[in-house]
Every structure is written in C-alpha cells, then in structure tokens.
Amino acid sequence: MQENKFTEIQIDRIIEMAWEDRTPFEAITFQFGISEQETIEIMRREMKASSFKMWRERVQGRATKHAKLRVNGIDRFKCKLQRQITHNKISKR
To answer: What does the domain layout of the chain look like in residue ranges?
Structure first.
C-alpha cells in the first residue's frame, strides 16, 4: 500500500468504519479499494498499540465484520437506523 494514498479525512473514515461492529471489511474494500489486511495495517499504524490490540481482539472472527460469516439475508453495509453519511460527514435526519 502506498503511504500517501489517502487523505487524513479518508484515513479517519477507514478507521471509523473498521471500529463499527456492523460494517464489514468488504464495505471498506468497496469504498476505498483496500483489502482487509491493508485496513489492519492502517489501524496498526494509526492507533496506539493498546487500542490496536483491543480492536483486533474484538473484531477477530466477528461475524458482522466478515460478509461470508453473516447470516443470509443481511446484504447491506449498515443498519437501517444508522444516520446517513454524505461526503464523510454525518447528516441530520
């Protein structure tokens, strides 16, 4: 992965999506064109070591973070009740 591939705002959004329990890695791939491994590398680089370790333990094997492990019928990236995201800014309902 290229170091300067993303802006600071894009990196913040990748981290936010990675932290969200119901946002699968495939959604990050779809939006930013990076693999799960590249997402993990960004998280490792941008977070404190203790925060990264806590995040990895939480998402490892979590069904909601991996589309293949999800229950059939869940084909959206986010909860229907989650606020709409427009140009990396959360808009009001």
So the answer is: 8-90
